[in-house]
Write a structure and sequence with these properties.
292 residues; mainly beta; Jelly Rolls; eight-stranded antiparallel sheet; eight-stranded mixed sheet; 2 helices; RmlC-like_jellyroll; Pirin; Pirin_C_dom; Pirin domain protein
């Protein structure tokens, strides 16, 4: 059965970090029921250096996973335990914050990139950051880093598909998340018609990065900057058009959400505990980060 569209969300321009200009596709208590288990999706991209160069200085996370996919430029990152690295175009950092971590992410143009005059295209830095909720029993788990240097991709007669997590046409993503969420993350560059299998009852979302496409039979064209929310019934989606988009799917947690800034837990008491930990210097519960 082919899924229909339950709704379309248009994002909003905002700022975060140390003045980084963002396009917030979704995020916050108003959308969490619609997008469960996905909490937030930000598009960051600019050809104006001053709109991103101050980056996202040191900040904490607890209770979530963050996934940074880079299209242009680079992002230098490091954490409070001395780990550091750089994400380049086509690469991904998938971080399970779990019980708590401090880190920073600093977007920059690639070395040797000429800054365009008059702030014209192309973008110097461009990418997406996704927040995924952790189930209650994983909220205080040991933090995990997954630095994905190469995402499997393959060309088809309808375009190109990259698989970060999950599976498409026998291509398996390198990220294997061991939680009830069972997330899938696929990037498609479409020029034609395609079908994509999804799991019954899972939340399925599509965000249009560029171009436009029809995401269900008889649907209108949905263009750049829009998030498509599919109905929960059905095991397949059908997409036609000329667009670049990501498809996310995951099992809804259906758990209470208590959210304050970069910390997402299940109860207000857990949020208070997290901020008490920050004040006391006991926020970091694990002294090592796992690598997968």
């Amino acid at each position: 059965m082919i899924r229909g569209i339950d709704g379309v969300i248009k994002g909003r321009n905002t700022m975060d970090g140390a003045g980084v200009k963002l396009y917030r596709v979704f995020g916050g208590p108003d959308t969490v029921d619609l997008t469960d288990p996905f909490l937030l999706l930000d598009f960051f991209g600019s050809n104006k250096v001053e709109e991103y160069i101050n980056g996202f200085p040191w900040h904490p996370h607890r209770g979530i996973e963050t996934v940074t996919l880079l299209f242009e430029g680079k992002v230098e990152h490091q954490d409070s335990l001395g780990n550091k690295g750089t994400i380049y175009p086509g690469q991904v950092q998938w971080m399970t914050a779990g019980s708590g971590i401090f880190h920073q992410e600093m977007p920059k143009p690639l070395e040797g990139t000429e800054i365009p005059k008059y702030n014209q295209d192309p973008f110097l830095v461009r990418g997406l950051q996704l927040w995924i909720n952790l189930p209650s029993y994983k909220k205080m788990t040991q933090p995990v880093y997954r630095d994905v240097k190469s995402v499997p991709k393959e060309k088809f007669d309808f375009g190109e598909v990259s698989v970060l997590a999950g599976e498409f046409a026998g291509i398996e993503g390198p990220v294997k998340v061991k939680s009830d969420v069972d997330p899938s993350y696929i990037h498609v560059k479409l020029n034609g018609d395609m079908k994509l299998k999804v799991k019954e009852g899972y939340t399925v979302l599509a965000y249009v990065v560029d171009g436009s496409a029809r995401f269900a039979p008889n649907s209108p064209d949905i263009g750049k900057g829009n998030l498509v929310i599919f109905t929960r019934e059905g095991d397949e989606i059908k997409i036609s058009g000329n667009a670049s988009f990501i498809v996310l799917s995951g099992r809804p947690l259906n758990e209470p959400v208590a959210w304050y800034g970069p910390i997402v837990m299940n109860t207000e008491d857990q949020i208070i505990e997290a901020f008490d930990d920050l004040r006391k210097g006991t926020f970091i519960r694990h002294k090592e980060i796992l690598y997968e």
